[in-house]
Amino acid sequence: MISTSPVGTDFAHRIAVVIPSYRVALHILTVIAAIGPEVWRIYVVDDKCPEESGRYVEENCEDQRVVVLRHAVNQGVGGAVMTGYRAAVDDGAEIIVKVDGDGQMDPSLILNFIEPIVAGEADYTKGNRFYDLEEIRAMPKVRLFGNAVLSLMTKLSSGYWDLFDPTNGYTAIHADVAQHLPWGKISRRYFFETDMLFRLNTLRAVVVDIPMDAKYCDEVSNLKISKIVGEFFVKHVRNFFKRIFYNYYLRDMSLASIELPLGVLLFVFGAGFGGRHWLLAAREGITTPAGTVMLSALPVLMGLQLVLAFLAYDIASVPRRPKHARYRNGKSKRRGNPR
């Protein structure tokens, strides 16, 4: 392990950077070299890398801020980040930034990511590559469509309706919020970033998007959106029902708690009743009575209105008050998330 003596303590905040390291030996030294003096410590997490990138960094990097951590078994990007979070929190970091080691994320943007947290406006920030229209036009259409689908699913499952680009891994988090996360439950692999948003919502943490440009060099991404949409869909559905139960029935009750089940019940009843009578009428070659049509259409319309009312309430309920100040003041004790 490289020296762990604090560096950069002249800065008002202890900023730590976590770099998951797996097949990134070609780029990781360049990434480390580009990290500015505002960063106090850098954690390189060798996730059982076949290139032994941890050893490579130790032998070739002279930056005294660098600490190399190793996994005996590959745990995926989520596992590597959680290891980095634990080390940073234990060492006294205040804000933890996660940057990939493949050169796609510009380290000069670190100050942009920590600024809302330092200002007390956010608990967690994440990158968004879809602000610049010129950048969007240059992206492959399949990537655009895949991100749109994943973003919609993430909005539903996480409750952060104002966010986009959910698979973006350039993030920053306040340590007081990070230590309240259920580290052992967060998804270890490609679902990590979106599962983080779900967990943050259960803490009612404030999350802010940070505009950034995508950088593409000669790195090879292991994430193929076309292959993981199905898997992500199942996990998003699971998280959606968990979030609804936690926020609208376990921790609080509101009018929205009635609107959603009643709306779904009316919609299903109306659609089922109308579909059954339509099939009977089509089979017998008769016209469905107007009363039957109304008895079917009315519950469908009422149910749809109630579901839309619930969605409007849910969108308006996006967390707006940062949590880390209250954690720091000792007003909230650590409590693990519900299972």
Report on the structure:
With 339 residues, this protein is of the alpha/beta class. The chain folds into two domains: 15-248, Spore Coat Polysaccharide Biosynthesis Protein SpsA, Chain A (Alpha-Beta Complex), CATH 3.90.550.10; 253-328. Helices cover 49% and strands 11% of the residues. The chain has helices at residues 28-33, 53-60, 76-91, 110-118, 133-138, 141-158, 175-178, 192-202, 225-250, 255-284, 290-316, 324-328; strands spanning 15-21, 41-46, 66-70, 95-98, 124-128, 171-174, 207-211. It is elongated. It starts with 14 loop residues before the first strand and ends in an 11-residue tail after the last helix.
- In the CATH scheme, the class of the largest domain would be Alpha Beta
Q: What is the average per-residue confidence, as pLDDT, rounded to a whole number?
A: 87
Strand order of the largest sheet: 3-2-1-4-6-5-7
Largest sheet: 7 strands, mixed
Number of domains: 2
Return residue spans where pLDDT drops below 50 for at least 5 consecutive residues. 1-10, 331-339
The percent range for strand residues is 5-15%
The topology string of helices and strands comes to EHEHEHEHEHHEHHEHHHH
User: Which topology of the largest domain does CATH recognise?
Assistant: Spore Coat Polysaccharide Biosynthesis Protein SpsA, Chain A
Helix/strand/pairing category = alpha/beta
What Rg, in angstroms, do the CA atoms define?
24 Å
CATH homologous superfamily classification of the largest domain: Spore Coat Polysaccharide Biosynthesis Protein SpsA, Chain A
